[in-house]
């Protein structure tokens, strides 16, 4: 029984399974049918959408074509407008050029016989003046210059001079040609540019200067305002040396003042007064105090007798005083004429017997040659040779023949050069009718040598030698100095 039941149940299960399979197939077939329906529906929708897109594209294309046609029509209109404007522009340019050309020729012609605008002489406008008007204006300017002054400021005063004193010729014709012809040699376009747009052009008188007048005022100012330096001095009194310090001075810079005056006249507005500052330079002493203090000893001396009194005695005393404390620096040349001169009445000298044409005659300064001869002997005893020396035509009685030294103002001088490395101070004085000349320097100057001048006389001729002896009396130096011939 149980077996039968089991078989029946199996059969039932098989039936159920077959039915389920059947149902599943039916369901799958339904699903496939649904899918097919959906596909068909989708295809229909796609086709519809495509049709709509195509219609839209066609409409857009049509609209674009319409817009292009409108743009083409607008471009054609714009081109026509541009062409018209271009023609108008070129016509305007052409007309402007014609007007400009006419203006150029009219304007340049207008100033053919007139001075250009913006032309000045100093601060005076010459614009639009014709030739005769320009002549009058130039004379007016010249008159203004004649009334102008230059103020020269110095260290402590002010000099006022008339500008006209420095001018020889105002050269009006020269300045007139420059002003009147300015710009007229250019082409018409440049002329027009100068007339219309030219900047301010200033002309100045190109005067011929009075060089002598300028130099004269400069020399006058220098003479009156220069403050000469004071050289250091060594004053010898009774074998004692006293020193005075030097002092700086001021000296007008004459070259600078000359340039400033000329520059002012040529470059500044001389229709009005001008102020100039004069420049000064320091005038520094030539002698160095330290060098001067190296002088410590008397190295030579010589004296002659003149008797004193009279015009001759006065001339000797004047020249001795002028010679006293003269400093001759190393390498410097001493000039007797410069030291005591000029030998004139104004300089303190008087009339006394002098040798003129081999005879004694009265003349200014008689006696000064005795002083120069005394100096000459002191110089030789200092071991120094002359650089210029002449003997008298007639032998002198105050020194041996061959040892005199004459002076003729302006033609014959007596000179020597300091060959030592130390300064030489000439100490000179008179006492009891005697002239005393001393040479002072450093004690090492002679290097221990004693010098003696000797003159050998034969008739009217004297040959002079200088000998040097060491401390043992041995001759270490010999030099022929000069040959003197007397009448």
TrEMBL record:
Composition bias (Basic and acidic residues) maps to 1-42, 51-68
Per UniProt, which keywords does this protein have? Membrane, Transmembrane, Transmembrane helix
Please list the coiled coil stretches.
none
Per the UniProt record, one Pfam family is VanW
Is the keyword Lipoprotein assigned to this protein? no
> InterPro entries, per this entry?
Glycopeptide_resist_protein (IPR052913), Vancomycin_resist_VanW (IPR007391), YoaR-like_PG-bd (IPR022029)
Region entry Disordered: which residue ranges? 1-72
TM segment ranges: 89-108
* Keyword check for Membrane: yes
YoaR-like putative peptidoglycan binding domain mapped to chain residues:
161-268
Q: What is this protein called?
A: YoaR-like putative peptidoglycan binding domain-containing protein
Q: Which organism is it from?
A: Romboutsia maritimum
């Amino acid at each position: 029984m149980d077996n039968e039941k089991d078989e029946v149940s199996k059969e039932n299960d098989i039936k159920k399974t077959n039915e389920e399979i059947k149902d599943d197939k039916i369901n799958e077939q339904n699903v496939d049918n649904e899918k097919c329906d959906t596909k068909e529906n989708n295809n229909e929708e796609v086709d519809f959408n495509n049709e709509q897109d195509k219609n839209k594209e066609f409409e857009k294309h049509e609209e674009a074509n319409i817009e292009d046609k409108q743009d083409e029509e607008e471009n054609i209109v714009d081109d026509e407008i541009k062409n018209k404007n271009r023609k108008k522009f070129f016509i305007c340019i052409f007309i402007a050029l014609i007007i400009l050309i006419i203006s150029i020729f009219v304007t340049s012609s207008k100033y053919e016989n007139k001075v250009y605008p913006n032309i000045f002489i100093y601060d005076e406008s010459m614009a639009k003046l014709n030739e005769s008007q320009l002549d009058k204006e130039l004379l007016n300017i010249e008159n203004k210059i004649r009334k102008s002054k230059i103020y020269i400021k110095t260290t402590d005063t002010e000099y006022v001079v008339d500008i006209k004193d420095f001018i020889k010729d105002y050269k009006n014709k020269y300045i007139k040609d420059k002003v009147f012809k300015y710009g007229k040699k250019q082409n018409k376009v440049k002329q027009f540019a100068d007339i219309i747009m030219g900047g301010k052009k200033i002309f100045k008188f190109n005067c011929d200067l009075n060089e002598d007048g300028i130099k004269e005022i400069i020399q006058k100012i220098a003479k009156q305002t220069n403050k000469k330096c004071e050289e250091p001095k060594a004053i010898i009194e009774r074998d004692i040396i006293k020193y005075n310090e030097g002092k700086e001075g001021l000296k007008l810079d004459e070259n600078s003042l000359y340039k400033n005056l000329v520059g002012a006249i040529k470059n500044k507005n001389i229709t009005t007064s001008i102020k100039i500052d004069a420049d000064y330079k320091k005038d520094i002493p030539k002698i160095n105090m330290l060098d001067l203090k190296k002088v410590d000893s008397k190295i030579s001396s010589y004296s002659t007798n003149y008797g004193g009194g009279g015009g001759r005695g006065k001339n000797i005393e004047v020249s001795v005083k002028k010679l006293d404390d003269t400093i001759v620096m190393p390498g410097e040349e001493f000039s007797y004429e410069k030291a005591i001169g000029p030998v004139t009445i104004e300089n303190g000298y008087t009339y006394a017997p002098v040798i003129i044409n081999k005879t004694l005659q009265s003349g200014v300064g008689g006696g000064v040659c005795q002083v120069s001869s005394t100096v000459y002997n002191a110089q030789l005893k200092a071991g120094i040779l002359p650089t210029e020396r002449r003997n008298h035509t007639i032998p002198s009685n105050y020194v041996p023949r061959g040892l005199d030294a004459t002076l003729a103002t302006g033609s014959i001088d007596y000179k020597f050069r300091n060959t030592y490395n130390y300064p030489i101070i000439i100490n000179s004085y008179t006492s009891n009718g005697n002239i005393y000349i001393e040479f002072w320097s450093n004690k090492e100057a002679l290097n221990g040598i004693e010098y003696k001048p000797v003159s050998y006389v034969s008739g009217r001729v004297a040959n002079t030698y200088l000998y040097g002896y060491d401390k043992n009396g041995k001759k270490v130096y010999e030099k022929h100095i000069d040959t003197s011939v007397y009448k």
